[in-house]
Design goal:
239 residues, mainly alpha, 9 helices, disordered C terminus, transmembrane helix, Fatty acid hydroxylase domain-containing protein
Amino acid sequence: MSSLTQLWGHIVDSYSPFTIEVTGVALAQLSLTVLFGSYELLTVDEKRRRAMGKILPGILKNISTATLVHSSALALVSLWTGASLWETTVTPVNKNIPSAGRFLIDLINTALLFEISFYYCHALFHTKFFYKHVHSKHHHFKEELAIAAFYSHPLEFVVMNAGLVVVASWLLGSHVLGMLLHGAVSGAIAHFVHTGEDIPGLMSHEGHHVAPNNNLGAVGILDRLHGTLYRGSQIKRTH
């Protein structure tokens, strides 16, 4: 038995499924903020370090709010089903660690489902009412910083940065570790593209900030289908 399997088995024996799922999601989000934020503190100029200090409280508020919503949703499910709260989750939590192949399949399937849901939710947040009252907070932040990926209105964060991953994992029956992997990968990509850089082969997120009604998806599949793909050769953020 590998040390990783032993560690996971110890976690499952020591904590309730509810605690593992909710805490795991929160820790994954917090870890991304800490890792990317620590790197940026050492590499960015003083102006952007001050900007980081201004948005960090909002990011921590968003993570806390998402954790509260996740917990409250599970509490409602527990009341509805009559099951113990501590045994209530949206993903299977057990000692059986999925195989590498299952992790890969889950990652691909949840990414495709996430792309579809992200596109339409993002398009909704770009309608007049939701942009003015919700999404504009993210777009009005002008500094190119990784941690700005999680700087948004709490409603937007709960829906797009947390909720879509959890719901996609629930619909596909992913193991809790599969859900955490998908959240970590999608979150890491979101942080990277908010530095102003693009990942080769993926849709340009900077293009979305240049042309806000374009590049609404996560990877570009739906943008190609709906004709909202921005193909500008020179990208400069304007917000």
